[in-house]
Amino acid sequence: MNIGAIEAGGTKFVCGIGNEHGEIFEKISIPTRNPVETIKDVIAFFDGKEIDRMGIGSFGPIQVNRDQSDYGTILETPKTAWKYFPLLQTIKSYFPKDMPFEVDTDVNAAAFGELKWGAAKGLDSCVYFTVGTGIGAGAVIDGKIVHGLLHPEAGHMFVKRHPKDDFVGSCPYHGDCLEGLAAGTSMKERWGKAGVDIHNEEAWEMEAYYLAQTAINALLTYSPEKIIFGGGVLNHPGLIEKVREQFSKLLNGYIKKDEVIKNVENYIVLPGLGSEAGLKGSLALVL
Amino acid sequence: MNIGAIEAGGTKFVCGIGNEHGEIFEKISIPTRNPVETIKDVIAFFDGKEIDRMGIGSFGPIQVNRDQSDYGTILETPKTAWKYFPLLQTIKSYFPKDMPFEVDTDVNAAAFGELKWGAAKGLDSCVYFTVGTGIGAGAVIDGKIVHGLLHPEAGHMFVKRHPKDDFVGSCPYHGDCLEGLAAGTSMKERWGKAGVDIHNEEAWEMEAYYLAQTAINALLTYSPEKIIFGGGVLNHPGLIEKVREQFSKLLNGYIKKDEVIKNVENYIVLPGLGSEAGLKGSLALVL
Question: Entry's Pfam families (chains A, B) (predicted)?
Fold first, then answer.
């Protein structure tokens, strides 16, 4: 079976063709511009290629409830050109009427891909956080992607402030929510330079302190079998180890499960699918 | 069908007999002592009564995974007499071998009961917080109770501190986690008197600030269709209204759904089943 996959991000759209084993045969990266220009390139990539179905993992907020008439439509977003853009309907119109499509958020797709073929393979639940310019979160519980009222937006949860942190926070909605304190943007504002150029130990201890609370709040709410951290910020060497260390310190033995207490290096992990988690996850949506 | 239900709490065990419509015919409240004395009274209540199945909602942590050999056993708890007590196995031994039993946490049971017959009736998801001496949380997503690695313990999540709060926090594990800042115990320690005797506005504004963050973090992680607050602290007149107010203020329009923006008084609510949420929920577990 040939499966089309689109990871629709705010910076780039990654399109690919693969199969039901999560193998990607070919892919392309298209810079995200306005919807018309971007979708034109997306359609050009798939043009003339045999595909049987298609999965789309998109930046949010997006309608992921299949029962709603606006299923697959981008909702209210600061990316004004994309506000209320009917992403699924537009793409669908270029393909045969009966071809199956699935849409979810890029982070839910990544979580699902990791469960299917990556770091959470063989488990029933996982949470995936991507820490880049912003912080996104996807979750799978009991083998099913979490939707509910909308979809998770756990990047904006509230956490406690590091005692030495007096940065006001960079989130335009909440100021010092998690994203406002720990996303790439906030690191840049707080320290005056991009993450890759930050070499002081204090900055990374602080970052780990916030991501450790992220993991703890995820553990205490979702109770997942695996917590995965991806995104550019996690490329910093040693950060994931620091997160685990602070996690154990802050959790302080509260959840007495070996997975969490003795085996934290297998509980809080980097993505097993690396940078392909989103694309492979989008593909997995439609299986 | 006659269904037995036990709400096994740290202070009292409420036992009841009801039916598949959530009607309770008779019930009894037994003070919680050591396991032997307590279970003796529980069994005496059910003795000679015709019941076909039984649901148990217990204080946690407790093994809720049916596939584990210690299903229904209390895990590591500060209530030392109950540590590793095989609650289900002990009760089961007094009933016919083939009688169906189900065990979950008291708060998961309450969440499930509210979904079945209470404030979240007709929905697929809800989160239930009980704010009393401690803070407990149960969650239902896609019609199923959340378990995963263990079960939710969202009462211990981290939240941001109120700017005027310098109380160190009362949680023996985490100090200033949610429970450490907002449970009845912490109110008592901070203000020097029990919640019922606290009449200063500042105290209740602060409490609402923490519970509003609880609701926001629940919304952003679980994305539930309803958030329910029960427990003794919520008996304070006007508290739920204050929670809604702070919720809207802190969320600041981030999740653009009418349920959350325009209709918050139907989104953050008191239990529909009142003090019977736990007992009726325990009953519902076995349907």
Answer: ROK
